[in-house]
Specification:
By secondary structure, this protein is of the alpha+beta class. Helices cover 55% and strands 13% of the residues. The chain contains eight helices and five strands, in the order E-E-E-H-H-H-E-E-H-H-H-H-H. It has a five-stranded antiparallel beta sheet with strand order 1-2-3-5-4. The longest helix has 42 residues. It is globular, with a radius of gyration of 25 Å.
């Protein structure tokens, strides 16, 4: 049965700044933290409706996510007049992990890399009895790391996709000319294909 609007749990809202220019809406609900779907989607580079679509439409992706512990519970809550759908702390973390490992989403990879850098730096400072960086420094360093790593991975992904597209050309040729599939490259194809009879003359 669908919950009535008045029966929704009440949440307290705060905007969590992960790094300069990187934020997500967070809600304290019944002693737990939950995160807004719209901003979580945008943080990963998608449209605001992305997470809702994953649960409602992309069943294979949802199944893959559930295989690594994702619950998919998009709890609607009440914050003043707003009724945002929210994601649990664990689900949000698992989603970022999935996007980084399985989807190779540059933004997700950059989030995980930058988070590890921040934790590692803090633990290292602590080990040497030094004070951790202040919040402003952490925010600036996280943002710098995020945008740098995102750019590196986005470029790498573009290169890989370019190679795949180049390979697609070969696969398309094989579809209308099965002879091509028997040879390793265009040179052999040209040599033996009836489309290039001059090669047969040379071979003779």
């Amino acid at each position: 049965m669908k919950k009535k609007t008045d029966d929704l749990p009440i949440g307290l809202n705060a905007s969590i700044s992960i790094g300069e220019g990187l934020s997500v809406d967070c809600y304290a609900v019944a002693g737990a933290f939950r995160y807004g779907l719209a901003q979580a989607s945008e943080l990963l580079g998608y449209e605001k409706t992305y997470l809702s679509q994953v649960v409602l439409k992309e069943q294979q992706k949802l199944k893959d996510l559930q295989g690594i512990g994702f619950t998919g519970c998009l709890l609607p809550i009440k914050v003043g007049r707003a009724r945002p759908k929210t994601l649990s702390f664990d689900d949000f973390c698992i989603l970022v992990e999935f996007e980084a490992v399985k989807v190779e989403n540059p933004k997700a990879i950059a989030l995980l890399t930058s988070a590890f850098r921040e934790v590692l730096r803090g633990r290292t400072q602590s080990a040497f009895g030094l004070d951790e960086d202040d919040e402003e420094t952490k925010q600036a360093d996280f943002a710098a790391s995020f945008y740098e790593r995102e750019a590196v991975w986005a470029e790498n992904r573009a290169d890989v996709e370019g190679l795949v597209l180049a390979g697609d050309e070969d696969r398309n040729i094989a579809e209308y000319d099965p002879a091509f599939a028997r040879f390793e490259n265009d040179t052999l194809y040209a040599k033996y294909s009836s489309y290039y009879p001059e090669y047969f003359d040379e071979a003779a």
